[in-house]
Design brief:
With 158 residues, this protein is mainly alpha-helical. The protein has five helices and three strands. It has two domains: 13-43, no CATH class; 47-146, Aspartate Aminotransferase, domain 1.
Length: 158
């Protein structure tokens, strides 16, 4: 159900009614099929969920470790399939330019924080959609992009 958002609001009945009116004008609610799917996903067997959590834990750990090895200190989130990282200098003011140059020069594609709103500027979002070895190789390419004149011995696989 990737991409579907399921949530709820609890509170004062008048405020919830006002929220429904705002939401009706701004977006739409999920249809019953998505709601039933969400119920099944949340209340059904969790073996698949646990397996997916382990896969993303391994990817997160490999990626964060690799970033730390090249000197890009990023906090390790508890649970995620994305890593948000503050851009290093001199890129901190232009996440779009960073992402454009990075993909042009290395083939590594990341999302500019500016694409997520004004507060996202100065950050990039990495998606943990590949196996750990691929993520580590991407970080090696990022290291060469950030430090083109330096040889960064990472011991990572490409």
């Amino acid at each position: 159900m990737g991409g579907f958002r399921v949530g709820y609001a609890i509170g004062n009945a008048e405020l919830i009614l006002a929220l429904r009116q705002v939401k009706a004008a701004v977006d739409f609610n999920q249809y019953r099929g998505i709601l039933n799917g969400a119920i099944a996903a949340l209340t059904g067997p969790q073996a698949g969920v646990n397996a997916a959590v382990e896969i993303f834990r391994q990817r997160r750990d490999a990626f964060i470790t690799a970033l730390h090895k090249i000197g890009w200190q990023v906090p390790c989130p508890d649970a995620t399939m994305y890593i948000w990282a503050r851009l290093p200098e001199p890129w901190v003011q232009d996440s779009i330019q960073f992402c454009t140059r990075l993909v042009e020069e290395t083939g590594v594609a990341v999302s500019p924080g500016a694409g997520f709103g004004k507060s996202g500027e100065g950050y990039v979002r990495f998606a943990l959609v590949h196996e750990p070895a691929v993520l580590e190789a991407a970080v090696e390419h990022i290291a060469k992009f950030l430090h083109p004149s330096q040889s960064v011995p990472l011991g990572l696989r490409i």
